[in-house]
Amino acid sequence: MFTDIVGFTALAQTSESDALRLLERHNQLLRPFFLRFRGREVKTMGDSFLVEFESALEATTCAVEIQRSLRSAVPGLPDRERIRIRIGIHLGDVVSSNGDVFGDAVNIASRIEPLAEPGGICVSGPVYDQVQNKVDLRFDRVDAPELKNVQMPIPVYRIILAPEPPQPGSSSGGPEAPRRLAVLPLTNMSADPQDEFFADGLTEEIITELSRIASLRVIARTSVMRYKGVTKSVREIGAELRVGYVLEGSVRKAGNRIRITTQLIDAATEEHLWADRFDRELADIFAVQADIASSVAEALDLRLRPTPAAARVAPPNVEAYTLYLRGRFLWNQRTSASVQEAMHRFEEAIAIDPSFPLAHSGLADCYSILVDRGVISDEEGIPKARAEAEQGLALDSSSAEVHASLGLVLTHSSDFRRAEQELRAAIALNPGYAIAHHWLHLVLLSGGRVEEAVREMRAAEELDPLSPIVLNSAGLLSWISGHPEEGLRKLERALELAPTSDAAMFNLVSLLALTHRENDARARLKSFEDGAAAPTSKFWVAACSYGVLGDRAEASGMVERMRSLPQTEHIPPRMFGFILAVVGDFDGAYSIFLDDRNSGGGAFRAGIRVSPALQKFREDPRFELLVKKWEAASPLDLPRVEGAARHGT
Known about the structure:
Among the domains are: about 1-160, Alpha-Beta Plaits, CATH 3.30.70; about 180-305, Rossmann fold. By secondary structure, the chain is an alpha/beta fold.
């Protein structure tokens, strides 16, 4: 780490005594931070420090805390008495000698520091790689940084800190940045291990309840469930999820009684801010969730956004609610078998309590995901999904989940205008609903609105940083936005979390192949073919990947293997059309895509509009005709299914 006082030389020329007093105060303020974060002060050079740290994360966190402290120290000081510094951080090998350090890494750090703005921090690419998923910060890449006497290109990033507090008399200002919280999976303390689903479902419901706090950002279920059964300290989890607070606890269910214990912890200090125990009848579960959210809000001194009285719905039957939690537990596993099992639980919940809107939402999501996976056809699944979502909306128009479910159905039926309306309604009701942001980004991409899609994707990634589905989309967007290495890192991370993801693997192989790393692309494809993915996924990824690599014969062989699969493996024609577009058979691809029945929903059209693997396909004059047809087409005309016919799959 290199630090340097802004304007020190000019101050010394006008008043040496003022400059010396400023320098002494500067040294007194900074040195405790170095000790706190295990930094070793190598030397001072006038108004500069050279400090060595044991990790890039400790160096970065130290720099951020220093700048925040300097901004808040003694507001209202005249400019000549304010301490403003620049900080540069680099990660690399050094040689120690007589208490000093030498090497290229030292030189690079000293060249990065001047690129920082006054009161700012710049880090090199290696530092960014180490910390970007571990700190609650935003990074902006510096375009073509010029580092004096450094020959090799070094990527540099600026850390975007909150704006400096306004000085007295200034009218500028802004709201406090939202606080970030992670709700860890509640531990099941019940004697019956089958109650595991109840603990997981209750975790998700508490996350939903807390997300209603406007000034709180709550990490989505997908990411926090990664810590189920994992032994890590709260501090480690806080750093990995980039949150300031963690809520943890347990649930014990015995007959019609439940006991929930919860505690709110400061992630940085591991200090317990609040703890409580709730012993209630199971019928009071809904009130307990609200009590927990209110207590957390009070402990953090936040205001819980109330639901308007007119919009409140009656609590569901407890038995129906328990079945709903079981269904969501299964749906969140996202395998075809678990989703089909989830359908039965939602259907059972609806049979007990037909007025339970979330059960209808869950059933709609089951149909949607099975259509997306090709398990059931569009003609069979979309009308049923739409009937369930609209029934849920009729029962509770204030539910973000129901609006999002309907938005997803509408993307599948190509009604993108209304899909956008429903998804924006879901986000307005619950800005912390990561799934809604992700589904909205697909709708926007399908219409070619890339910049808007990037904004929604950033929101989804902030709320759900460990979701492989989100990381796949974020990686693709980073790539098409001109940052292929960042895209590569996110796609690799997505596959670490979900090794059988066909979308992430195809995007990764495409990125490697199209950035002249063909051997790496083939190696990754081979590992996927040898892995645990389903045959349909393996053959589809291989066919598309061989097309990108220019091996048309291999791609054709994979297509034949797809066609030889049992009839139970329903593969929509549009998937074959995608392969034809990749391998260069544009006539065949357009003959499929120009048929309205094969136009696909938001996710599919988004891939067609932005995938780098289809760049040549989009240069064909017929692509403009296809886009116009998409934009002019009315929603997919499929028969409607009324509520009485819902139990058909």
